[in-house]
Amino acid sequence: MSISIAIVEDEKNYNNALKKVINYQKDMKVVGQFFDGNDALKNLPDLSPNVVMMDIQLQDMLGIEIIEKLKKEMPETHFIMCTSFEDDEKIFNSLKAGAMGYLVKGESMDKILSSIRDVYNGGAPMSFSIARRVLQHFEKKLSEIKGFDELTKREQEILELLSQGFLYKEIADQKCISMDTVKKHVGNIYRKLHVSNKVEAINKFNHFKN
């Protein structure tokens, strides 16, 4: 049985090149070709392809929006982002929306074809540069979580008050402790979170909360 594929890509030459190469494969067939988001949004559910090759930045909307709107309606369909964007926000918004793969335009057709087969068989194909960014992101997250895990309850309370704009003296009064004790706690917070000042500590705290 061949893998059914839809292409959502507003760059006509690239869209047609993908279609030509995919249809040349014995185990694949393009069942839909779309050049704008609205057209894709309207027609993809009826086609229900196995795989959708999705551009991120379409002229009328983001490919991420299409996935968010269609994912529940098309639970069996696997979406692969195929895009020139490599910034963290777009990568993670795509993955959060439900994309199972992320390829950078410029990948060889062999890589694109193997990625389609891979995602169809339950994989999560990514360009090397994207996979590296994802790993770096999670390594950073883990180190942040580890830092917060090491904070005592009192240190967490003090960091919360710092983030709300309280001064050391106000924190000391609120917690019925001396200014020196507050400073000592703050020093421990900096050390455990691997930061060197209050702004960095608060940024990390807010990032962690979100």
TrEMBL record:
- State the UniProt keywords alphabetically: DNA-binding, Phosphoprotein
The record's Gene3D superfamilies line, in alphabetical order, gives: 3.40.50.2300
Q: Which domain of life is it from?
A: Bacteria
Response regulatory domain location is 4-120
Q: Is DNA-binding one of the keywords?
A: yes
Ranges in coiled-coil conformation: none
Gene Ontology biological process terms from the UniProt entry: phosphorelay signal transduction system; regulation of DNA-templated transcription
Under InterPro entries, the record lists: CheY-like_superfamily (IPR011006), NreC/VraR/RcsB-like_REC (IPR058245), Sig_transdc_resp-reg_C-effctor (IPR016032), Sig_transdc_resp-reg_receiver (IPR001789), Tscrpt_reg_LuxR_C (IPR000792), WalR-like (IPR039420)
Sequence intervals crossing the membrane: none
A molecular function (GO) held by this record is: DNA binding
Question: Which Pfam families does this chain map to?
Answer: GerE, Response_reg
Residues bearing PTM 4-aspartylphosphate:
D55
**The HTH luxR-type domain covers which part of the protein?**
144-209
* Protein name as catalogued: DNA-binding response regulator
